[in-house]
């Protein structure tokens, strides 16, 4: 059933970081540190570098003050320096490359490129390990920072979701450029792809794309950090409630991917998720893509919650959905 | 800090199945089906084939009636047919190969070999997908069998633990034969390795070895299935209690690997674990091995529980620890 | 602030049992036993007697085959024989008494009466302890039946909710007849009470009434059993999903009373809830009633979920809401 | 089986507050506020007044700087002013009264008395409601303070445990003086009571006494606040670990009362518990005392954890156990 002549690609190791733009930098920073529970590891220019307590890299979220909102760029780390070279060769051949950049506070040189919708990606191998100051050293040395228990206290970067006008083109792009696998997708009645979930490793997805109806390119849907237990998601809901954070929908369980989710907007309007996947992993090397039809999606989320309308329309930067 | 001239190996995809021997086949089967919550998918000869509700393969546990207890063999699935050939070449060169077998009810031809302590391994690529009968079809098509909620209702095979006289030799063997990474290990004061945790993918470990003091070769320590939440482990404790299952230790959190654990003995005496890892994954391609000293281990488990004495002595088949 | 000349009333100890009518007796029984996780303790006439594993009485749910659906009657146990006599005197003076009945399979003689909407209540003191057969004996003797882990495996009867045309009259009735306290209520803009939550003990409520817009008297809204953890409610959602049970709304947290809820319809259409209250109790003897306005209720449930329309209309027996 | 000529007593409503003595006042305060998650509501003299976020009274813990450790006194609130008068009359007749005191920052006049071991109790009715400052106002008005999520963030005072040389005398004292019920007890082989659990309301216990082997009178064993979920107890363990708090034993489930527990020592050495009771309540008015034998207790806690030795010896102020 599966093509076994072509071996799976392991060149890209994992999602590394996401750069989020905010036009309310102080409020956004307060949210990410005091409410969401990230830790600041550095500052440079208009950006603050943030990380969850069990992220091993210097940063996984780069929060950048900007005239608008949305995503600056997304970075993936490769499995080796050689794998980075192989990927760059493929991407250059695809004609979507931008070129090498010197790197950032949190990692070494990186190769930048664009997806068909205009989002900026970068690949890098050389990274900077987080070195906790004395006050952040963990009691057990197999976690990367002390479990501080502040706010939602998310554990690690999990995935992001981007909007794109043509998800089918994205599918071809991601499987070729990063060697990603498509674990699940939505097939609309009109023949278009409504959404697509990709992974480069054993996580069930590290990036998802859903269809954008505004015509505005390169928009951002949400970024997600993982917590260890569903109870942490329920607890997060109370923390958001008490801190006046806008809760869009959840907690509930997604039908697609089975993730236990909770969506909020940080103060500048970017959507942020808290999620738990339980013990679910994609260990199977020849995982066949699971395709959901529009009819199936009409049943709502796993336990029947209707998908909230704004989930199909709200992205950043904001934009009007064409009628 | 890490050697980047050698690329990581992705030839082996995941732990596939474990064969457990029992001299109380009916009691063991009752335990695994009614209490632990596995589902029977087939029978052949002296063996019953069992699986957890979200395992994608036909079986992950082969329960075989035998004169004694312990492990029959352990199987790993490779990432591709080509990867299987590559691994066989390496293993044959190591001189520990046994040879090809035709396969089993649950998978195609497999290559068998021995670890330095005598445990039998097999590698295979061709597998048999589980096809749920009507009564076991799930409500959501991205899980592999209906969540039946019977007994502990474990989700998927997670890892196993074997005993070996010389764990250092095992470390060399596993990293060479399977291309496994050593994520954590125990360095004893006497210079020996007390334990070693290996992974071939993003799980923090799929097999562990700990030192055997009996001199008996090829003994088995435990097999573990994962549940989605720590609450499922606590609930399992009540289910074991009410069903008269011997609880050895737990629930508690391991210092090593941070797993939330619960250990019991199935009726024939083989140790079985229920575990939850939370959101912890080894996504980092150049993960540096974490080494625990004897002094550190004396602090007990994560929250201070002393490691129970039988954890260092009880294995199957049973044996006396030499004084 | 509180009237201290009148002492609180402790005559009624707790909600004892609810009789539910079903026109699909076999399907309803399968639901309550195999899916919801109650245990049958007896049968008589058209009724099956059911109980949760930690209910101390013979039964807490009496399931009666009937031409229609809804509630047969609700029973409360008094604190003592003397308290029963005192209550009967009060109720007779109110003019709503029906009279003594001989009792039932699960308890001794009881005094029956009607609330202003026509629901039938009974008060009793003499009860029948549940005596578990050998197969249902618990491992620990401070619970009343073995934790069997079957289906949702609810722990104990928690509360019920009835519909009434005039909730204000109900408030007067309950506080006088049973000596209940009003812990929370909804004050509508039109001056009417939209809902009222009552308790006779330290639970935050054992019965609630909400306004019925159909004009049909004595309708039933739902019955609720408690589980120990919110995780049990989430797990229940998967069990309902896999068993084809209609999920109306949830899991989510109520703003009123803070209960973590999940509502389903059993096969005959009666609404059934699974709930967890956490550690919340009404220990305060002079608890001031908390009043919610319509404006406040428009914010939806605790984390923003809109209250589902059917929650205001669906009751049993079914009826049309007058426009 | 139960004596129904005597009606149950409802004069005492609930445990109100505990005064803890500390010879390390600053460290103890840091522990209770930053780690345990209480909130300071006032200061007077050598005392700081503390409360959990859903306690309705001004304070539930009075932390008093002292030359030693242990308990200052314990306060219970009565159900009414009349009930207070009735109790005082009974206690005076018992000959163990001390007399009226003017009250405290958190409540009005109180009547003080001694238990047979010398611990000081007080009963009061007039209390002071907690009035949250703007920054502590909750999002939902049915909780008494904002859920701040700081540290362990315990919800409400639950119970305390005292040591006594003669627990049998305590049983007579508590049932007479407060009208408490004995829900569970330990009957030693030597005819003595090893422990006794009492309640004045629907909680399964609000105070417990266990036998003291030191001969030192009026010692303190531990104070306990409740959290909503068992997951909160597990999370507390990580918070204690990261903050260098000594964890004595747990998390595990008690056989007696079924409480999910975790015990630590605050910096001055007083034992403090975090606990969750699930949905368990003593609603039954004629609850028969459950008696555990020494043989039964030897099985350890619910899931087999051996009771730690220090649990039988460590109390405050500290003392030597006579051989």
Descriptive notes:
The structure is a homotetramer of 323-residue chains. Chain A has 323 residues and is an alpha/beta fold. Chain A has a single domain, classed as Roll (2,3-Dihydroxybiphenyl 1,2-Dioxygenase, domain 1). The first copy, chain A, contains 6 helices and 17 strands. In chain A, the strands form 2 sheets. In chain A, strands 14-15-16-13-9-12-11-10-17 form a 9-stranded mixed beta sheet. In chain A, strand 10 and strand 11 form a beta hairpin. Chain A is globular and about 55 Å long. The N and C termini of chain A lie far apart (41 Å). The model of chain A has no long low-confidence stretch (mean pLDDT 96). Chains in contact: A-B, A-C, A-D, B-C, B-D, C-D. The interface between A and B is large, with 48 and 48 residues. Chains A, B, C, D: Its EC number is 1.13.11.2. Chains A, B, C, D: It comes from Microbaculum marinum. Chains A, B, C, D: It holds the Pfam family Glyoxalase. Chains A, B, C, D: One of its GO terms (molecular function) is catechol 2,3-dioxygenase activity. Chains A, B, C, D: Keywords: Oxidoreductase, Repeat.
């Amino acid at each position: 059933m599966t093509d076994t002549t072509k071996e799976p690609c392991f060149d890209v190791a994992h999602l590394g970081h996401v750069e989020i733009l905010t036009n309310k930098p102080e409020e956004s920073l307060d949210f990410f540190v005091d409410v969401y529970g990230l830790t600041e590891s550095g500052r440079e220019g208009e950006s603050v570098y943030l990380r969850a307590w069990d992220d091993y890299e210097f940063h996984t979220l780069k929060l950048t003050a900007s005239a608008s909102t949305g995503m600056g760029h997304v970075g993936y780390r490769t499995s080796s320096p050689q794998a980075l070279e192989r990927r760059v060769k493929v991407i250059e051949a695809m004609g979507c490359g931008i070129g090498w950049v010197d790197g950032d506070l949190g990692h070494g040189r990186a190769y930048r490129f664009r997806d068909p919708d205009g989002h900026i990606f970068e690949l890098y191998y050389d990274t900077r390990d987080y070195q906790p100051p004395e006050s952040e050293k963990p009691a057990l040395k197999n976690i990367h920072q002390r479990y501080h228990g502040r706010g939602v206290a998310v554990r690690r970067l999990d995935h992001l979701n981007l909007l794109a006008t043509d998800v089918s083109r994205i599918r071809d792009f991601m499987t070729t450029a990063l060697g990603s696998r498509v674990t699940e997708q939505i097939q609309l009645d009109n023949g278009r792809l409504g959404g697509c979930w990709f992974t480069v490793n054993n996580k069930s997805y590290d990036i998802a794309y859903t269809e954008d109806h505004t015509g505005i390119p390169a928009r951002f849907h949400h970024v997600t950090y993982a917590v260890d237990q569903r109870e942490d998601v329920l607890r997060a809901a109370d923390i958001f409630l008490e801190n006046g954070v806008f809760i869009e929908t959840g907690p509930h369980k997604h039908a697609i991917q089975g993730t236990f989710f909770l969506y909020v907007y940080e103060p500048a309007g970017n959507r942020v998720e808290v999620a738990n996947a339980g013990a679910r992993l994609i260990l199977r090397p020849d995982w066949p893509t699971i395709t959901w039809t529009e009819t199936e999606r009409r049943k709502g989320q796993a336990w029947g919650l209707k998908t909230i309308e704004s989930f199909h329309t709200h992205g950043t930067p904001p934009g009007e959905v064409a009628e």
